[in-house]
Amino acid sequence: MSSRITPPLPWCSVLDNVTLPLSLRGGVPKRTQKEEAERVLELVGLKDYMKVLPRQLSGGMKMRVSIARALISRPKLLLMDEPFGALDEITRQTLQDELLNIWQQDKKMTVLFVTHNVFEAVFLSTRVIVMTPRPGKVSAAIDIPVPFPRDDHYRTTAEFGEWVRLVSGALKH
């Protein structure tokens, strides 16, 4: 089973947005839906916002709601297509850190993260796949054998800079 990150529905509370996949699946008791929602909202740091509507949230908080909704189904594969692209750099880095924390808690889940940001790709990935422009084909596959956890300090290391240089070079070939 896989899940894809999609924006929250503006007319539904955070709780209703997050429980939507379980509601649509059917056969999941309301109590179980709420318990699972509390679990994933705790994971993304939004447990206190269950009754709030998306318009009352920041862009980063809306993205966390979307991530929680994707996680509630306990997917084995999480598809993320440029989820942080429209966010400011501070929020983007915070959500990168949070995504790594979530992934480390559930290493049974594979995350396929699409980004045009080389720094983001290197920071988040165990493997970076570089694609050619139209038609999109794999031009390079670069393993990033840097142990986790990775943190803000890692972003400023020479090792990180070297991986960014290597991936950037692969983009130019």
Helix-strand layout with pairing:
Layout: E1 2-4, H1 14-25, H2 30-43, H3 59-71, E2 77-81, H4 89-105, E3 110-114, H5 118-124, E4 127-131, E5 138-143, H6 158-172
Helix pairs in contact: 1-2, 1-3, 2-3, 5-6
Number of helices: 6
Instruction: Return the structural class.
Output: alpha/beta
The H-and-E topology, N to C, reads as EHHHEHEHEEH
Query: How are strands sequenced across the largest beta sheet?
Result: 1-2-3
Number of E-type strands: 5
What is the 3D shape? Answer: elongated
Our estimate of the beta-strand percent is 5-15%
> Biggest β-sheet, characterized?
3 strands, parallel
The residue ranges in which pLDDT falls below 50 over 5 or more consecutive positions are: none
How widely separated are the two ends?
A: 35 Å
Q: Cα-atom Rg, whole angstroms?
A: 17 Å
Return the average pLDDT rounded to an integer. 91
Helix content class: 40-55%
Write up this protein:
This protein has a 3-stranded parallel beta sheet, with no helix packed on it. Strands 4-5 form a two-stranded antiparallel sheet. The model has no long low-confidence stretch (mean pLDDT 91). The termini are far apart. The relative contact order is 0.12. It is elongated. The protein has 173 residues and is of the alpha/beta class. Helix 1 (14-25) crosses helix 2 and helix 2 packs across helix 3. The chain contains 6 helices and 5 strands, in the order E-H-H-H-E-H-E-H-E-E-H. The longest helix has 17 residues, at 89-105. It has helices spanning 14-25, 30-43, 59-71, 89-105, 118-124, 158-172, and strands at 2-4, 77-81, 110-114, 127-131, 138-143. Strand 4 and strand 5 form a beta hairpin.
